[in-house]
Structures are given as structure tokens and as C-alpha cells.
Amino acid sequence: MSTKPDPSSKEAESSMTAPAHPPPPPPPPEDFHFKKSPFVKKLRTAPPDWYYKAPVSPPPVDFMAPTGPYFYGTLTDPCMIAEILGLKHEPELRPAYIKGYECKLWGQYPALRDAPNSIVEGAAYHISTVEDGKKLAAYETRNYRPEPCWINYKDGKEPLRENGSTFKFVGDPYALSEGQFDLKAWLRRVGRVKALEKLEAKVEDATRSKDNASAID
Predict the structure, then answer these.
(1) 188-211 in b/e burial notation, b at 16+ Cβ within 10 A?
(2) pTM passes above 0.85
(3) Residue ranges of the alpha helices (H) in 21-129?
(4) If you average pLDDT over residues 26-42, what whole number do you get?
(5) Residue 57 CB: number of other CB atoms within 10 A?
(6) CATH number of 64-181: 3.30.70.270, 3.40.50.10320, 3.40.50.2300, 3.10.490.10?
(7) Which residues contact 88 (CB under 8 A, 6 or more apart)?
(8) Environment class of residue 74 by beta-carbon count within 10 Å: exposed (0-12), middle (13-18) or buried (19+)?
């Protein structure tokens, strides 16, 4: 029958001795305010067939657009472009459209495909360096490829038309679905509240300016 050891005995002394090396402290809690890059966010929301490879791989492209690529979908958000390129200020985009394409959906993202009699509307931004072009191409991933196109501007300013580039979808065509991309809905879905508020404010300002011009006429 075991008994409680005598506190004065060596056995009790050894059993009560503190360990020589205390256990390490627990790791610090994860910082939930850590800012994730737009590319990481896109990876997390990509469709399951992300690693699709085309039967014939497209040739490598050293992306550079002298007049700036034509942006559609998520890249019509100036805040998103500023984050990707590391700009201090939001860029100025010109409303524009291109012919010969149609827009489908790849998961929650827009995907341009060839369509001879169709028009896709969006906005254009001038890329000044090859490095910036590569950053945008990395954001779009290898499922998109820069392709030359004519950019037609809608703001009435010169030039009215320029030769530029757009990102065309080259991933699995069976992964595409019908639907319209709504930038406001997408910003709300991914929690980009400030960007949504700025976009709505710009739309209101543009509408107010148009109404004032009509009243003067």
C-alpha cells in the first residue's frame, strides 16, 4: 500500500524539485489584421480546376503595353490597381470598350473570349513600365494572356482610339459559365467596402455633372 512520502525524505525532495528547463511559452496568436495581397485572395477563391493546362501551351510573353492594357472586371477598380502596382495614389482610368470579345465568368471572375460581333465595356489604364505590366500579368495568373487589341474610348477625349492590350482567358473553356460581372457586387462580396464607397461616389458625381450639363443646355 503506497503512502504519502515524508517531506523530509530524499524521495519527496526529488519529486518536488522543479524541472531544470521550463516549457517554452505558447506561440503568439495569429494577427487577423495582417493584410493579404490581392493575388493571395484570388488564389483562395479560384475555381477547383485552377491547374488546368491547355493542350498546346501558349508561347511565353514578355508583357508590355505601350498605351496601357484594357482592363475589365476586377481591374476596373482603381484601388485594386494601386495595391497591385504599389502606387501612392489611385490611377486615372478612361472608360472604354473593345470589339471582338465577349465576357463570361470563371468562378467569380470575368473571362474574355473571342466573339467577332460582340463588345465588352470596361476601362483603360496606361502602363508606363514593363515591371508594372509583369505585376498585373502575375495577378491575372497563367489562365489569362495579354493580347493586342484596339481600345475605343468613351469620354470624348483625344485620342478616341488607341492600340493597346487586354487580358484574354486561356484556361479551361469548360470551366466558364454564362453571367454578367458586376463590379459593385464583387467588391461587396470580397469585403472591399472603402473601394465600393469610392466607386459609388464617383458614379453619383458623374450623374450629377451630367444632369447639370443637361439643365444648362
Answers:
(1) eebebeebbebbeeeeeeeeeeee
(2) no
(3) 38-44, 78-85
(4) 60
(5) 9
(6) 3.10.490.10
(7) 82
(8) buried
